[in-house]
Structure prediction request, 140 residues.
Amino acid sequence: MFILLVVGLVGIGVAVALLVPLKVLGAAEPPKPVSATVVETGSCGQGTDTVEWDADGGKKQAKLDGCGHREGETVEIVTTGGDMVSSAASVPAGPPVAHRLTALLLCLAALAGGFYAFLFRYAPLRAPAVLPLPAPRRAE
Prediction:
């Protein structure tokens, strides 16, 4: 009975550790979107538009990793610190849940396999490997 308690508690602990929000674990905040205005459009063959936004009391310009916007159009961008900015819609908000769910299922499968090995090794009732054949009947 003790082993079931241990396996259950470990499974719950792994589930909590993998599914808790990363903000609680001290992960960095995702970049916040900023409103920018398109000041120069580039053809989609070049692949970049130029945008301008307010940053720290001044105007900044950078190339937008995208094309097809009209001049004067307002877009949401995410600054990465370089010469290129990205559209806020194209940046993921956080790590994919599928990776954490995969890790959770892998841990639970390992726990289940370990428990099965424990049961196989320390089974209380073992059947003989070869069952004896029934005695032949005598013809009367």
About this structure: DSSP finds two helices and five strands in the chain.
